[in-house]
Amino acid sequence: MGAISEIFKKNIRQYGMIIALIFISIFFQILTDGILLKPLNVTNLILQNSYILVLAIGMVLVIITGHIDLSVGSVAAFIGALSAIMMVDMHLNPVLAVILSLLMGALVGAWQGFWVAYIKIPAFIVTLAGMLLFRGLTMIVLNGQSIAPFPKTFQKISSGFIPDFFGGSSLNVLTLVVGVVLSVLVVYQEFRNRKVSIKYGFEQTSVWLSVAKAAALVIVINLFSYVIAQYNGIPNILVILMVLIVIYSFVMNHMTMGRHIYALGGNEKAASLSGVKTKRVTFWVFVNMGVLAALSGLVFAARLNSATPKAGTNFELDAIAACFIGGASASGGIGTVVGAIIGGLVMGVMNNGMSLIGLGVDWQQGIKGLVLLLAVGFDIYNKSKTS
User: Fold this and answer.
1) To 10 degrees, the CA torsion angle through 209, 210, 216, 219?
2) Best exposed site among 28, 55, 223, 285 by fewest CB in 10 Å?
């Protein structure tokens, strides 16, 4: 029991939000008479929150370095507008248009990263200026009007599903197979990590605790697979999200770049003296944010099947809230990609649940603000207890 308590204390931010997500889901499942976790609604939850989750992955890196990016919603709208001009007006190939859009996002990130990293203007000011600049450019590019419709192939980014190669009728068999494969990989990875830890003499938890953790993950994966298999199976955007989560988690946990990002957020002067090229790291973190903001804009445009001047409104606030709720520290140096995703899902389930029970937008905004305040307060309380 002491070992469980110790593990929970060391991972209280992440585990706390997982528990909160479970309780929030159960709470709204009861209030909505079982509608929340129906296959159609679970799929809609993924589709509705995909662009915020993409932004949260990039935003958590920015926050870990001790900065903030207020421009991502406007950048997403701007890139969505450019993609519409390329695909709808200029009839450019969707694949080429997507590549060019992502490159434009990288250029936007480089522009902002230059001012933050090398000119040393606070990121809050640079990205606030960017928020105004790119919102204005979006209005200019679109001339105040929406552009639609996008090609069908592009729309499938947000509305398409992976075909069931096994030809299931009532259930998507491919989804179930993927769930089983992922379960095997999770169990293998859990015990591989344990074996590596033993080899290098790291502190170990009990075997039964590792088994319990792996079993819990397997149950969640297969339940989720079964639920979405009852609708259309695996959405294309879920595949994109999973690839991003795996790649960014690997970079942050196992690569030098990830260690440098954490070091920069923990103590910039100490990181610089240790040989970390702090300016370069900051610059590339903003370039990365620009690319993911562009991807978010493309996903949103594909889902809406239109580029509109009002696209991306408040995206930055939802992404920042997802990161803080998921355990990122406002002072930098702390945060995880998985935590940001969990935070985004907490926000998404709350939004969806409150809408299903007919709660007004005014109440929804107030409750979300209160949750964010409590999450940051919880973070500060934990830091004061450990210092």
Assistant:
1) -140
2) 223
Report whether 105 contacts 75 (CB < 8 A).
yes
Reported as a single tens digit per residue, the pLDDT across 58-112 is 999 999 999 999 999 999 999 999 999 999 999 999 999 999 999 999 999 999 9
Q: Residues 66, 268: contact at Cβ < 8 Å?
A: yes
DSSP 8-state secondary structure symbol assigned to residue 345: H
Tell me: pLDDT of 4 over 70: no
Q: How many of the other CB atoms lie within 10 Å of CB of 114?
A: 17
Say how far apart CA 86 and CA 281 lie, in whole Å. Answer: 32
**pTM score, whole prediction:** 0.91
Distance in Å from the first CA to the final CA of the chain = 25
Whole-angstrom distance, CA of residue 82 vs CA of residue 99? 12
Residues 6+ apart with CB under 8 A from 94: 87, 150, 151, 153, 154
Contact 134, 108 (CB under 8 A): yes
Q: Do the Cβ atoms of 241 and 54 come closer than 8 Å?
A: yes
Q: Which long-range contacts (CB under 8 A, 24 or more apart) does 102-105 make?
A: 102/291, 102/294, 102/295, 102/298, 104/79, 104/294, 105/75, 105/79, 105/290, 105/291, 105/292, 105/293, 105/294, 105/295, 105/297
Name, in order, each residue with C-beta under 8 angstroms of 382's C-beta and a sequence gap of 6 or more: 12, 13
Please give the Cα distance from 314 to 294 (Å, whole number).
Answer: 15
- Alpha-carbon radius of gyration of the chain: 21
Retrieve residue 296's tokens. Answer: 């978010």
325 vs 165: CA distance, rounded Å = 38
Among the listed ranges 55-64, 153-162, 317-326, 375-384, which one has the minimum average pLDDT value? 375-384
d(CA 379, CA 336): 14
Give the tens place of pLDDT for each residue, 183-204: 999 888 888 887 877 777 776 6
Task: Report pLDDT for 338.
Answer: 92
DSSP H/E element including 295: helix 278-304
The stretch 250-259 carries a mean pLDDT of 93
